[in-house]
C-alpha cells in the first residue's frame, strides 16, 4: 500500500510540474533585486547559509487590458535535479498592476540549488503566463 501511495504522489507531482512549451504574452516576470535580506548576489548566484530562511521573489506585471488571475509557483531542485521543495500562492492582478510575490525557503544542507519560478493561469491550469525564471542558490 505504501508503494502505491508513493507512485500516485510521484505521478501527481509529475503532472503538476509539466512545464508548458509556450506562454501567453499577458504577464512579464523579472528577478527582484531585493530578493532576500539573508543572501548575497555575486557572479549570477545567490549565496546563503544553511538553516537561514530566504525569500524567492520576482516582480510580475500584468500587461493586459483586463484583470488576470495567476498562480506563482516556486520549485527548488538540488544539484542532482531532484525537486526538494514546491510551494505556490495564487492571486489576481488588475490591468497594469505590478506585484512582487515571494515564497520562503530554507536550505538544510550545503549545496547548489536551482529555484524555478513559474507563473501560470492557475494551480490546476498550467498555461504559462510568462517564461520560467531560474536562479542558482549556493548554501554553505
Task: Produce a short descriptive summary.
This protein is mostly beta strands and 140 residues long. Helix content is 11%, strand content 51%.
Shape: elongated
> Helical amount among residues, as a percent range?
10-25%
In the predicted model, the low-confidence regions spanning at least 5 consecutive residues are: 1-24
Distance N terminus to C terminus? Answer: 38 Å
CATH topology: Immunoglobulin-like
What oligomeric assembly is this protein in? single chain
- The total of beta strands comes to 11
Instruction: Report mean pLDDT, rounded to a whole number.
Output: 80
State the CATH superfamily name.
Immunoglobulins
Beta content: over 45%
Order of helices and strands: HEEEEEEEEEEE
Which CATH architecture is right?
A: Sandwich
Major sheet attributes: 7 strands, mixed
What's the number of helices? 1
Number of domains: 1
Name of the top-level CATH class = Mainly Beta
What structural category characterises the helix and strand content? Answer: mainly beta
Please explain how this structure is put together.
With 140 residues, the protein is mostly beta strands. It has a single domain (2-139), classed as Sandwich (Immunoglobulin-like). The chain contains one helix and eleven strands, in the order αβββββββββββ. Strands 2, 3, 5, 6, 9, 10 and 11 form a seven-stranded mixed sheet that branches. The longest helix is centred in the N-terminal third of the chain and has 15 residues, at 2-16. The relative contact order is 0.26. Mean pLDDT is 80; it is low at 1-24.
Amino acid at each position: 500500500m505504501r508503494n502505491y501511495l508513493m507512485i500516485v504522489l510521484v505521478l501527481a507531482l509529475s503532472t503538476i510540474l509539466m512545464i508548458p512549451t509556450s506562454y501567453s504574452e499577458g504577464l512579464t516576470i523579472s528577478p527582484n533585486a531585493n530578493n532576500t535580506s539573508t543572501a548575497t548576489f555575486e557572479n549570477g548566484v545567490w549565496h546563503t547559509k544553511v538553516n537561514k530562511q530566504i525569500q524567492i521573489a520576482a516582480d510580475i506585471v500584468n500587461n493586459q487590458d483586463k484583470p488576470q488571475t495567476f498562480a506563482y509557483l516556486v520549485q527548488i531542485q538540488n544539484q542532482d535535479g531532484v525537486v526538494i521543495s514546491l510551494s505556490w500562492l495564487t492571486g489576481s492582478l488588475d490591468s497594469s498592476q505590478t506585484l512582487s510575490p515571494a515564497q520562503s525557503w530554507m536550505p538544510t544542507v550545503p549545496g547548489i540549488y536551482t529555484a524555478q519560478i513559474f507563473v501560470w493561469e492557475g494551480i490546476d491550469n498550467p498555461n504559462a503566463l510568462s517564461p520560467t525564471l531560474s536562479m542558482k542558490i549556493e548554501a554553505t
